Each structure stands twice: as structure tokens, then as C-alpha cells.
Give the backbone structure.
Amino acid sequence: MSIQDNLAAINGRILQACQRVDRDPTEVRLVAVSKTKPATMIEEAAAVGQQLFGESYAQEFSAKVDQLGTSVDWHFIGGLQTNKVKYLRGKVNLIHSVDRLSLAQEINRQWAKIDQVANILIQLNLGAESTKSGAGEAELEQLLRQVAELPNLHIRGLMALPPYLDDPEEVRPYFRRLRQLAEIMKSRQIPGVELQELSMGMSHDFEVAIEEGATLVRVGSAIFGTRI
Ligand SMILES: *Cc1c(COP(=O)(O)O)cnc(C)c1O
């Protein structure tokens, strides 16, 4: 299957998932995750209408942007060390993976230099998996309140990377929990916090995520093939 065929298939499945739960398909955006894949593949996807891409490694991202012969929209979705934030400055429309105050402060500092506001999501570690990044549920409210104080950041929503489980149905409770947390936090009406985006769902479970309210699905291997 070509990238074009894969994209058509994924977009069709997104549409069907929306129909199953009566959602407006324009609420769901596909983030084509191109990490480890060459710029030529991104150009191929862009040529058939995919405009939004996600990358996970700051330096790889930065190099690829320079190689790319076309203009696309970027989201950064991977774990981020503070000393790498500078590679993203002004180049990404949304950072999905903010899980601690120190990282938010550095993003704020870098975006202040270019007099712009960075859009971010707060990443949660719902499974309390020690190997994964993400803020714990118990720290969420305080983190939102602290990050909301930073003038060059705008909180747009929440992100989660639940455990990989063979049966996507088993991941459903995690997606549901992320949505529930967003609702709870919205009801707190924290000034400067908007939580309309829910980034959840990957190649093997994005349809379940859409059924549970995802607005951003991050799909890599189902579009570009498996990564080595
Ligand atoms: C790699 C990655 C994805 C995409 O995973 P696939 O299983 O290839 O769809 C999604 N989200 C994050 C955070 C990733 O690092």
C-alpha cells in the first residue's frame, strides 16, 4: 500500500468512527507521525493533501524542516528535554508533551524571545507507568494553574499515551479517563486554561479514541509503515 492509499484508508476509518458516535468529523484532526521517516515521505503525504505532521525527536525534526521542499504544519509529540526546546521555537503549532513546570517555563522563555505564544497540551501518565513521561492525575490541577500563569504559553488541552494493549477495547477506559479529567478541569474554570483538545489514539487504537472524544489522533506506522 502506498502512503496515499494508507491516508485514504485512515481518513475513511476516522469518518466511520465519527459516524458511529455522531461526531462532526471536522472536530478530529489526523496528525501524521513521521518520526524516523525521511522528508521525501512527508512530501509524498503532503502532495496528496495531508497538511499536519507530528515529530518526536527535536533535532531530527529541526533537520527535517530544513530539508523539506514544502510547507506543512507541525506538532511536536515526543518527550522533551528542556535543552532541546530551542530547536522547536517558532516552528511548531502545538507541543503535545508538556508534563512538568520546568519544561513549560523553558517553552515560555523561548517563545518570549520571538514574541509569540506557544500552544501546548499537558501530557498525562494515566497508567501511572514508571517508564513513561506524563504528569500524574493528582498533580494535574496544580500544574494547570502554574502553567496558566506563563504569559507566552496557551494551554489547549490534554494528551495521553496509554499502555499498549493488544485489544484496543482495553485501552478505552484510559481514553475515557482523559476526557473525564478534561471535563473535571474545565469545571474548575481556571483562568487562561482551554481544554478543547484531546490528543489520544495511535495506529492501532485511534478509532476507539475517536469514539471517546479524541480531537487529535497521532498515527504513524499505519501511514508510513513500521519503524525499525
Ligand atoms: C510514535 C508515536 C505515535 C505514533 O505511533 P504509531 O503506533 O506508529 O501510530 C503516536 N504518539 C506518540 C507520542 C509517538 O511517539
